[in-house]
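Teaching note: in complex prediction, the entire set of molecules is handled at once rather than each chain in isolation. The prompt given to students was simply: 'Predict the structure of this complex.' The entities are:
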Amino acid sequence: MKEKRKISIKDISKKLGISTTTISFIINGKAENRISKEVIKKVEDYIEKVGYKPNSTAQTLRTGKSKTIVFMAEDISDPFFSAIAKEMEEIAFENSYKIIYCSTENKKERALELLTLFKDRQVDAFIITPPEDFKNEMEELIKENKQVVMVFDRYYDDFEHNYVVLDNLDSSIRATRYLLNNGFQNVGFVGLKSDISTTQERLHGYQQVMAENAKKERSVLVSFDEVKTPTGKKKIYEFISRNPQIDSLLFATNSLAITGLKLLKEMGLKIPEDISVLTFDDRDLFELYSPPISVISQPVSHLANELIEGTLNLLEEDLKPNSRFQKVLKGKLVERTSSQRISENNAI
Amino acid sequence: MKEKRKISIKDISKKLGISTTTISFIINGKAENRISKEVIKKVEDYIEKVGYKPNSTAQTLRTGKSKTIVFMAEDISDPFFSAIAKEMEEIAFENSYKIIYCSTENKKERALELLTLFKDRQVDAFIITPPEDFKNEMEELIKENKQVVMVFDRYYDDFEHNYVVLDNLDSSIRATRYLLNNGFQNVGFVGLKSDISTTQERLHGYQQVMAENAKKERSVLVSFDEVKTPTGKKKIYEFISRNPQIDSLLFATNSLAITGLKLLKEMGLKIPEDISVLTFDDRDLFELYSPPISVISQPVSHLANELIEGTLNLLEEDLKPNSRFQKVLKGKLVERTSSQRISENNAI
DNA sequence: ACGTTTTACTAAATCGATTTAGTAAAACGT
DNA sequence: ACGTTTTACTAAATCGATTTAGTAAAACGT
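The expected output is the structure of the full assembly:
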């Protein structure tokens, strides 16, 4: 089978005896008040007939716009990030943007590698979940002002930038208060060892409420790499063993909670009778678990919409350095059985 | 802050008084036996010094290779596909390929839209999970031979193509035999209503084993869109109600199983005492469930590796139309409590 | 000693679009 | 009636690489 070469604007130009300039104007909707209706019709009909589509690489080379957005997630296989990816995808495609994904694994070196890779390529925008210890790199990237940069799931205090995040402080405060109000006296916190705003705020919200209520704060911090490993589980185990008075656990992420639930099961602790559980980030798992696990759920759809629409808006404004897109959304406390107080007489 | 324009090969040419031809040869490793060592050194040193990186868009325009692979998943937010995406990503980047993702939602129209979108753009390869009723479009795409096309998670009998799939027939046969061997007399099958090879083979494997053992086949097929809806759950409910003799359920996908587990819980049926459960596709949920759910797990890492390495190999061979990459991997039966036969005396 | 081959390069074309800087003819204004 | 503006276009430059088709000088062969 003979390969037929793709048709170019030059071919059309020759075929119709019309300059490429004119054709380009027509394609790009700049023909109004410049080109006669007859010529417009002739060109449009021909384009329709042969199914011509401009070569996007050539357009990118000439205009510097690639219609490409890089989504640098912490981990694209994490249900939270893949759900966000899915929602963003649709809106991006509707606006003829494509999305390239990658995962930092919360590792600085990997993020840097990916960033250098994409800075060289033409990319219009970055949606980034910056890893640990990446503030300087992010600040530099943003100051360069070559692409739209949207920060997701965390943010920085020290400089101006676009971001979409959950109100983690507020969520954590509400979560902790809720557990105390349910009558749990000794709420423990299982968090990530991290300087990222997200985990910091979740810890601080908990600490703040415990302090307000003159309760002793008890927390354990697991590092990102350990969460899914025996080491991580062991850390939580030791935390619980050392603090037998704990009657309730607030987990800062869903991965921590999953490790925690495995552990509690192994330890033979009953939820919520022996220890109640509440975690950040919903997953279908949690609703189905026995007992169903209470969560602070992030508004995934809303977050994804703000992320992609904010990014597209900024792209349209064409990098005006002073317009900022900053959204802080509220979490939703979903009460299920795992955080319920079982009254003493019922428990027996 | 003044934006400094990116340096081009022409700038280097002017600066060093060396033609762009020579520089291009050096950059692309074609300098051997052509260009003197001194010039090579001079150019390489300068490139190193100013940190020059060729503009990839220009390269794409000239060479026709974009170093881009499109991963068209059924649904990128599905844990199976996002796990595959994650594993492929790393290898792709190591080989300086980038991946654009999209989801067909198993809808023909959407897949067609996405395909037309990407066929116009320069894309080197497609990794596609074709939706329902998309055979002709796939055959055409493959025959055009413009990009490497890798089919994933399903395949076609009628024409030659590259694919990576699970041995679904074998897996289903083993799964059904296993349930019968465990003493379950009436195994029911909950599948997808679909002409895709994957779901067809899973059904046929079940039917084959039931026939071999002179057992009555009982199955319900739910359409893709209904799986996560009340309608889907209702269909399974009616199936179970109409067939009270069923003592074991084989689910063809993890989404079906999740809907099924919710239903069994609502119906108050005990697993595995009242009804045993086995499902395709592992998820962390299943291990943690009470009781832990037995699964036929797909070798995700292995699949992803074959997919991306197969694709990269085919890309290197530069579209030789006759070389085919076809891998059929075995599933792994993971026995957990949900499929165990509880002996009568223990049951009481 | 002189034709041929090899070495070490370069000028210009090319990929396929957009954009700048123009022009000829028609219409307008007074 | 004649200069000016508007209309409707086009030629050529440009984005930044790679590649084709060459060439001048050195080395080689007999």
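Point out the following to students. Chain A touches chain B through 47 residues (CB under 8 Å). Residues 168-298+333-347 of chain A form a domain with the Rossmann fold fold (CATH 3.40.50.2300).
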